[in-house]
Amino acid sequence: MSRLISTSLILLSIAGTSAAGWFVDVEAGMAFPGYNDVQVPNDDSGTRFSLSDELDIDTEFIYRLRAGLETGRHTFYAFAAPLRLEGSGVLDESVDFAEETFQQGQDVTGLYRFDSYRFTWRYLLVNSPDLYFSGGLTAKIRDAEIRLESGDLSANTTNTGFVPLLSFDLRWTPTCRLGLQLEGDALVGPQGRAEDVFLGLLYRASDRMDLRTGYRIIEGGADVETVYNFTMVSLVTAGVTWRI
Questions:
Q1: Are 204 and 171 in contact (CB under 8 A)?
Q2: DSSP per-residue letters across 122-191
């Protein structure tokens, strides 16, 4: 939490700098958990199970912060997106997780946390009256944790690491005010994949303010020696971008 607060304050202070081309963006909404398949460790000593099937995971409020600079054809921004899903339930089967065994029939609480910090560069490729497209690269730092608890028994796995992603922003604006936006970061590799993609309506309220609302999907995971985890989360969100 302290890292998230510090990052948020840094983003807002950067955006507050008085310079042409600076912008700040806030997005918020509700996260609806989908599948969440887990095995820790990813060998015969770990049980592969569905966290979302074994537990009743709550729908959660989420927010995302972004601040950056547009200069010519280049856009740079820093980004913070915390994600925390919690649930509880009774196990339908015994689960070996992170060197602990949770017995069938036990009451269990669980946590899935996936905080994302990114720095993105995009280059403007198409800029016509009704079509805008930019593409580039994102450097992502993930700070993730999966935890199970039952009484005095507790086990968790954590992972902090770097992930390179491709980044894109496609907008179709048939009118000067209203348009469609497809935007996100994604990449598929031999050991896993990651997608964070938004599709929705875009409304230009003024020269300094854009509004949007739509659907966002967060999906992906890794299949490595220490952990197997693939997750999908659906989000219904609304956001606003201010140009300073």
A1: no
A2: EEEEEE-SSEEEEEEEEEEEEEEEEEEEETTEEEEEEEEEEEEEEEEEEEE-SSSSEEEEEEEEEEEETT
**Is 13's pLDDT higher than 60?**
no
Strands 49-50 and 209-223, sheet pairing = unpaired
CB-based contact 7:1 (threshold 8 Å): no
Q: In angstroms, how far apart are the furthest CA atoms of the chain?
A: 62
Give, in order, the Cα–Cα distances in Å from 71 to each of 12, 20, 162, 191: 19, 8, 26, 36
Backbone φ and ψ of 91, nearest 5°: -70, 135
Cα–chain center distance at 170: 19
Beta bridge partners of 77: 68, 120
Backbone φ and ψ for 59, nearest 5 degrees, come out as -70, 135
Q: Say how far apart CA 38 and CA 57 lie, in whole Å.
A: 15
What would the pLDDT profile of 79-118 be if each residue is shown by its tens digit? 999 999 999 999 999 999 999 999 999 999 999 999 999 9
Could you tell me which residues are beta bridge partners of residue 86?
A: 111
pLDDT digits (tens, 9 = 90+) for 163-186: 999 999 999 999 999 999 999 999
By three-state DSSP, how is residue 4 classified? Answer: helix
